[in-house]
Amino acid sequence: MKDSFPDREMVRQYLLGEVVDDSEAEMKISEQILSDDDLSVVVDSVEDEIIEEYLEGALPESERKAVDEYFLEVPERQQKLRFMRLLQTYIDGREKVAEMSIATPAERQKERKPSTFTWRLWVYGQAAALVALCIAGAIYVSRSHNRQTLLEADLTSERNRSEQLAQVVTELQAPVVSLTLAEERVRSGTGIRHIDINSATERISLEIALMGHPKALSYNVQLNAPQSREPIWAASVLPLVSTAGDVRLKLELPARGLKAGVYTLVVSPGTARPGWHGYYDFEVRTEK
Amino acid sequence: MAPRAVRRIVSPEGFGRFLRWLSSDNEQAVREYQLIRRRLVSFFIHRGCTNSDELFDETVDIVIGKIDAGTEIVTPLAYCYGVARNVLRTSARRRKPVSLDRDFVSPQASDTETREQELQCLESCVTRLPADDRRIVTSYHEGRGREKIEARKALAEGVGGLNALRVRVCRIHKVLRLCMIDCLNRPAKAKSLEV
Fold it and tell me: Which range marks the domain in which residue B90 is found?
């Protein structure tokens, strides 16, 4: 601690509101804290100390009153107090565990060694407990036997229900499949993107990366059926443009009714007279 | 509980003028602003103010008014501090007496699950401390009465005295508090993965 710093007792009084506002001492401490980060940490540590003593009940009455009425008014200090309480609980818990593990064998033996009376009580108690356990066991076995038949019937019914549920779950699975298209028509016919759809598939989440085309405010997208130039679905889509200028289109196609085959998405700018067309092929494979 | 006053918010234009006044360089202005903010908020907290953020905003509002009026200001931090003192005085006059019906010492009536979660987070945070800090903070809080005092004295010898130890522990507390906030704010799934 620097020599010019106020001592911890003065800081303590300052924090407890016991230094009169606008007094020379108060102004000096305030200004020092403001201009010196090191002192600010010292002040924080005094604050911790006050909270710790408050929790331990070690504060004199006047200071405890000041903490209640002034110091803990500040929400930040209330949070500190909650934290310190939690930390103390944690440390106390650790200590208990440590005490149990470091006790010497003799100490543990001493703790365990019962008196004659306790020993007898322990033996008779165990015998009584054993008898009670036997009776309870007999009743339990008898009742279990009766219940077993009922349980088996329940189990069969539960199995049937589980199978039905598994069927429903399968049908509900994956209502959306994703597809990303970045390359235009693959003329060689190889490397074409494909998706697998089944009876549960409802939509195809589609992302098209447009490359090498002039940008437009909106784009028309149409889906052509296999071996056809007739659109079976069309939409106008607003583009997503990255800060680097890359254009992407994100849309969802209805999957119901699509059959296996190679489909073509035709993209064109959403102007009255489209100047270019992009063709994106993908293959739909159907699963049962 | 008394209703709280509506939170003052510095207008974007005013805030912009304040930043430009601090420095013509944007990054430098933000750094200066953060420094002034940190110190004045601490000042208000140390003076027992429950609304330190609001009082800081009030201070900045007044300073902006002075800048607009063409007041010559040489040292921003010192000037802001002067204004902050006046704001504090005004605030103290507005402050109402505090009721004594609270009980800060007793543990809060938080549910067991929350408590358990907090303790798990704390354990995880303590585990992540550097070994030396972990040893210091646990030894610092262990024991009771005389035993605790002696343990702290022994611990202090290794770190340069009792005051140095207190400051070190205070810094560790701060690290743990921030870690706790982070841990408690994380989604439940991430937390259980970590544990």
Answer: 12-94
